[in-house]
Amino acid sequence: MWITIAPFVTPVDSKLERNTLTALLNVASWLKRKPGTPELSLERPLFDTEVYVNGEKKYVLPDFIVTARAPDGKTARVLIETMGYEDSDYCARKSRQHTGMKQIGVLHTDPPKWLDNDHPPFEKHMYGVFMHLRY
After folding, report:
1. What is the rounded distance in angstroms from the CA atom of residue 87 to the CA atom of residue 40?
2. Is the pLDDT of residue 2 over 50?
3. Residue 80 and residue 108: Cα distance in Å, rounded?
């Protein structure tokens, strides 16, 4: 599956990832219209990233990496992981992956508060994240 971001094409694995990407693009659009907010750049990793967890080499592949650049030039990386299932094997595997992803940047899931049915809409959650991001 692909989604076009004029003039670019971004591969996505599922409708859920397409929804996550659309939400991130909406957040970036909102922030662009508001003075004094960070500028966002989106990366869709296609290959694993090497990380070290407790001194052991691991590999992670986040769904999206957003780099936020504050007006003063400081940057922060936010990793976005689209969550698709709730079965125990998937949860255990994702938990291990998330530990490694946190070595790269701040991790957020779509939906926020994954496994908790009481979560805010992803777009609103991420708007708040980028408005209050620590650099």
Report:
1. 33
2. no
3. 5
pLDDT for 49-103, tens place per residue?
999 999 999 999 999 999 999 999 999 999 999 987 777 787 788 888 899 999 9
The pairing of beta strand 106-110 with beta strand 75-82: parallel
Topology, domain 14-131: Trna Endonuclease; Chain: A, domain 1 (3.40.1350)
Write down the pLDDT at residue 83. 84
> Residue by residue, what is the 3-state secondary structure of the chain?
CEEEECCEEEECCCHHHHHHHHHHHHHHHHHHCCCCCCEEEEECCCCCEEEEECCEEEEECCCEEEEEECCCCCEEEEEEEECCCCCHHHHHHHHHHHHHHCCCCEEEEECCCCCCCCCCCHHHHHHHHHHCCCC
Report the C-alpha gap between 90 and 50 in whole angstroms.
Answer: 21
* Cβ pair 98, 82 in contact under 8 A: no
Structure token digits, residue 56: 């052991």
* Annotated domain spans of the chain: 14-131
> Tokens representing 16?
């859920």
